[in-house]
Amino acid sequence: MVPEYLYHYYETSNGSFQNITQNGYQKAVEIQSKILEGWNSKRPPNYIELRFTLEKRLKDQFISKGGKPTRNDPFYFTLGECEWAESWYINPGVVKIPLSDFSPEHISFTYPDSMVSFQFSDEPKLATYRKECNGQIFLLSEISDLISEYGLPSEERSQAEKRFKYDKYIEAQVWDDSIVKAYKARPTKYKIS
User: CA angle, corner 38, sides to 33 and 42, nearest 5?
Assistant: First the structure.
């Protein structure tokens, strides 16, 4: 069953819908250098280069499958709730948006997280975790079949079986501003309690 909501997790002090790559390479390096606490502070030294390269690959694949992005960089969500994502932030917040609000031509998915999915596909040493779905994006019309074949990732499943260790959620990439702007403009955000 396909979850009905997308969840966007964020650091409340920074606000929602902030992508580290949205203002270019130099700004991204500056932002990353200021993240001193939490899970995101443990990124590898080449993270910014990896992120820009990955976002280009994501966008190119999305376009090749008929996607119509209106942004160079996507907004990141999880398909369904992912409490583990809360641990990435010191003071986490979350915005929950119905999947049905998004236009299929503006949304892509990876199984699991995009960075993890492409690393599994690219790195021979990670073959233990590799699945055929890694290293590619999926359209909304393909999600039901993807979940039928591989199951819905979860924290419990990732702890139960080694080959699913890094499969914690399906990531959604939103390539358009319109829905996001409407939610960002709302005075009240959903806060994780």
Answer: 55
Its domain, for residue 86, covers: 5-184
Cα separation, 79 vs 128, in Å, equals 24
- Which pTM value belongs to this model? 0.88
In a domain, 170, yes or no: yes
* Residue 64 resides in a domain: yes
The pairing of strands 138-139 and 107-110 is antiparallel
In a domain, 157, yes or no: yes
Residues 19, 71, 57, 126, Cα dihedral to 10°:
30
- Which residues share a beta bridge with 79? 6
How far apart (Å, rounded) are the C-alpha atoms in residues 139 and 120?
20
Q: What total number of domains does the chain contain?
A: 1
Per-residue pLDDT tens digits for 69-106: 999 999 999 999 998 898 888 888 999 999 999 999 99
Taking the C-alpha atoms of residue 14 and residue 154, their distance in angstroms, rounded to an integer, is 27
- Is residue 192 situated within a structural domain? no
Helix (H) or strand (E) holding 174: strand 171-174
